[in-house]
Each structure stands twice: as C-alpha cells, then as structure tokens.
Amino acid sequence: MISDTAMYDHDLPSICYGLRGLTYMQIDVTGPNKDLHSGSFGGGVNNPINALALIISKLKDEKDNILIDGFYDDVKPLSQKEKDEFKRLPYDEEKFKAELGVDELFGEEGYTTIERTSARPTLDCNGIWGGFAGEGAKTVLPSTAGAKVSMRLVPDQDPAKIEKLFTDYVNKITPKSVKVRITSLHGGKPSVTPIDTPAIKAAMRALKMGFGVEPVFMKEGGSIPIVNSFKEILGADAILLGFGLPDENAHSPDEHLDLNNFHNGILSVTYFYNELSKLNK
Amino acid sequence: MISDTAMYDHDLPSICYGLRGLTYMQIDVTGPNKDLHSGSFGGGVNNPINALALIISKLKDEKDNILIDGFYDDVKPLSQKEKDEFKRLPYDEEKFKAELGVDELFGEEGYTTIERTSARPTLDCNGIWGGFAGEGAKTVLPSTAGAKVSMRLVPDQDPAKIEKLFTDYVNKITPKSVKVRITSLHGGKPSVTPIDTPAIKAAMRALKMGFGVEPVFMKEGGSIPIVNSFKEILGADAILLGFGLPDENAHSPDEHLDLNNFHNGILSVTYFYNELSKLNK
C-alpha cells in the first residue's frame, strides 16, 4: 500500500489504479564560448536562448500535440469503458479554471481535461535559465542556456525508448550554429493495476468504513516508478490509497493536508490492514 | 569626446561614426496562479515556459529575420559607398569563428558579418528564467516565466515606435491560455555623425600622432544613447575615440585592456585636446 496519490475530491475516498510514467530530460545549449556584448556581436553568432526557445517551440504544436517523431507509436487508445468511467467523475470546468486563475484551459483536442491530465501523455518544461535574470537591463549575448523538459507517459510507452526518441529529435532540430547536450535525469514506467483483486476489494471496504462514503476509482497523472518495479520484481500489485486533495498545493509553496482526511485516512488504513489480514488467514 | 567604442583591430586606431540604437524589453508570462504538480495538471493548463518559448520563437525566423510587424519599415538600406567602406576593413571569418568557438555563424542572408553586427538591426534574448533551475529533477509546472529581449536599431528606427510594435506583436502572438506583461527597460536612438568636420579631422591627426598609424572609420553595433541627446539638445556631434579591442571580453568575465593601447590612447587624447584648442583660437 502506497499513500502518494490524491483523493479525487473532498469527501470522495479514491483508489488510484493507474499512474503515468516519466521521462525527464535536460537540454543544455552552447553558443559562443563566452558571454558577449549583444551590440558588438548580435547579428554575428546565434544566441543560445533564442536557439533553445526554438527547440522547445518545436517539441509541441500549438494544440499541445507532441511533435517528437514516434512519440505516440506505443500509446494505447482510451477504451470506451475507460472514457465512460472518466465521465462519471465529478468535474466543473469553470471551478477548475477559477481555482487556477486561467481564462482558458490548454490541451490536446478531442479529449476531456480529466483524460488529458491522467490518461494521455504530456510534455512540460519544468525549468529554463540563461543570461541575465536580475533587475534592469544587461546587454549580454550569453554563452549558454538550458532547460528541463519532462514527459508523462501512458501504457505502453517505455521511458528508455522515449528518452532515445527525444534525444534524436532534439539533435535533429537543433540549429548547426549552436551545440546541444541532452541528459536524462529521471525515468519511470507507467502502470495500471487490476481493480478486481481481493486486496482492492478489501481497500474498498476499508475506505467505506473510514469515510462513510463509497470510494471511486481514478487514474493519476503523476508517476510513482516503484509501483512498476514492485510488479516486475516482486509480482505484487500496489494498492494506491492517497488522502491528499488536488487543491492542497502538492509540489508548491503552502502545501498542506486536510485534518479530517488525515484522521479518516488513519482509520481507513487501520481498517485496510485488518481486512487484509482476514484474507491472508 | 567619448571613449566607449572599440578599436577595429590591434594597432588600428579607429574613429566610430555610427552607433546602433536600442529597445530593451521584458516579457513576463503567467500561466496558473501557483506552481503546480506537472503530473497532476500537465495536459490541463498551459505551461508559461512553453508559452514563452513559443513567443520567443516567433520573434525571428530561422534565418534571423525579425518577424515583428513593421520592424523594418524605417530601416535605411545600406548605401553602396557604405558597403564598399565595410569591405575595406580587415576581417577573417575563420579566425572570428575560432575565437568564439562556433562551427557556423548566424545572421541575415545577403549581408556580411560586419554589416550584420554594425549596420543592420538585430534582436537578442539577453536572459530567460522560470521553474526549477537547480541540479536534478523537479516535476513542477510553474506559475510564471520571463525573458529579457533587446533590439539593436539603425537609422531611422525610433526606439519608442519599436517598443510599441514589439508590444503589439507579442500581445498578438501570446496564446489566450496564458497572460503576458510587457515592460520597457531601456531605449536609445541610433546615431550617425558626419566625418568631414574640423573636429573629426583633429581627431584623425591626434590618432596618427598617438599610434603612428592612419586611423580607420567604423560603425559600432553597440549603443550610446547620450550621443543622440548631445546632438538633439546641444547641437553637438560627439567624437567617438575608443581604445578597447573586440577580444577584450567587454560585458563578460575577465574584461581587460591592452596596456599599449592604454598608453597610446592617453597620448592620442592629449594630442586631440591640443589640436582642438588650435581650432577654437
């Protein structure tokens, strides 16, 4: 049992049965061998920040489709059953937009937001740097610039294969007037666990006892690489019981945990071990 | 007299008669109102780093042509006389590439490197930032990202007009799924000074006495906004006598000054004031 997923919503205990995988890369671009004066050299040599922006702009099109050659080759289409299950989850788009402070959502056409954030692969820049980032103006044409780019993967994408496709593609689109170094920082396989096992049924009973509400099944957009390792090495399906909420600022300042869920979570886990012990007798 | 330009080459005393102008802008992009977990939210909302990279990639095409609507409208074409003068300056492309450590130069087609770095307008990113830039991997979908972008201007471009064109264009190309704030940080008009005045002739005599070599005329890609203010407000043409060399790492670590030029520069300036005092008698 792992508690590293989230409840779908307030008062809605949730069992997560699918996780996205991850390929996390770093791109380092070098232009001239030292920082230059942009007045004296601008127009003579390529600028690594401009070149990096160009590379990043070619990773996805403006409708969020990933352009890396072969990226979607192993992606399983969503089944109708799965689409129907997603539709049963409560979701209010206006509320979602208001909570995040955005005027417009963004993602692949033909998929709902829930599908896009949990069951479709995605690509995000997680960081970028280069040149002068302080207050005011400095007219530098920098020597280097870099970015971190991660991709969330779904069955049956393989992180090692995606790493190679990413590397080949970035090498292909990098202008010859700069040099690029591509490094892999992290990877994890996607995973889906069966939802009809005795252990999952024990978890359902435990959550109902802990929260007084029937639990739902959901997929999570994040990645927990060890879930796949447990399956491959130990043959064990992980049970993903999480008690955080989506608006509790995970990985962000002011991360917090609802005390009611903390207490009901403790009860649920206790019930779960008790239910599990009955199965093993 | 201002000593803020460079000598064209070693042992080649130089009088600068043209400077590029400058418009220096900052772009701040905001996506969601807080940093998010890229697994849980990736695919749902636009990522400000990806959006910023897209914006930057649309400022220039892949041949270094600036795409801002109206940007080239007021640019005077290079005269044949000017092109001929540039051709007389010593320039070794292989040496230039080797000094900067690049395999390929980059700039507008149809212009030489000297023309592109001194007499054509250019656009460079001077800095970029956003998200996680430390060692290793953090799966954040950041709330904000920003960049500094400057443009070198030539006669008769006006920095205030270019600032407006830049702002309108960036607003036009920014995706609706993010917000953008555009700020002007600095601006200066380009300038060209006449080269047949008594004061310029005095400077030519002074440089010849100081260095023992006939000086050359050159344009400089950098910007010294006060040169234009001296002309507009005082009616005075500035004499630009600089004694730094292009490979002395201006605006970069290990900036330095050749001692021989330092001493000959002192002599030249002394001779210059002496020659100038004769004119005023």
- Output the helix-strand order of chain A: EEEHHHHHEEEHEEHEHEH
Report mean pLDDT of chain A, rounded to a whole number.
93
Stated plainly, the CATH topology of the largest domain in chain A is called Alpha-Beta Plaits
Low-confidence stretches of chain A: none
- Structural class, from helix and strand content of chain A? alpha+beta
Based on CA atoms alone, the radius of gyration of chain A comes out at 22 Å
E-strand count of chain A: 10
**Biggest interface between chains:** A-B, 90 and 90 residues
Would you identify the CATH architecture of the largest domain in chain A?
2-Layer Sandwich
| Structure annotation, total helices of chain A | 9
Multimeric state: homodimer
The first-level CATH class of the largest domain in chain A is given as Alpha Beta
Q: Could you tell me how far the N terminus lies from the C terminus of chain A, measured between alpha carbons in angstroms?
A: 19 Å
Number of structural units classed as domains of chain A: 2
The global form of chain A is: elongated
What is the percent of helical residues of chain A?
25-40%
Main sheet makeup of chain A: 4 strands, mixed
Strand proportion of chain A, as a percent range, falls in 15-25%
Descriptive report:
- 2 copies of one chain form a homodimer.
- The first copy, chain A, is of the alpha+beta class and 281 residues long.
- Chain A folds into 2 domains: 14-20 and 191-280, 3-Layer(aba) Sandwich (Aminopeptidase), CATH 3.40.630.10; 22-75 and 121-188, Alpha-Beta Plaits (2-Layer Sandwich), CATH 3.30.70.360.
- Chain A is built from 9 helices and 10 strands.
- Chain A has helices at residues 38-41, 48-57, 80-88, 93-100, 113-118, 159-173, 198-211, 225-234, 259-280, and strands at 14-19, 21-30, 36-37, 122-131, 140-141, 144-153, 179-188, 191-192, 216-220, 240-241.
- In chain A, the strands form 3 sheets. In chain A, strands 1, 8, 9 and 10 form a 4-stranded mixed beta sheet that branches. In chain A, strands 4-6-2-7 form a 4-stranded antiparallel beta sheet.
- In chain A, helix 7 (198-211) runs antiparallel to helix 9 (259-280).
- The longest helix of chain A has 22 residues, at 259-280.
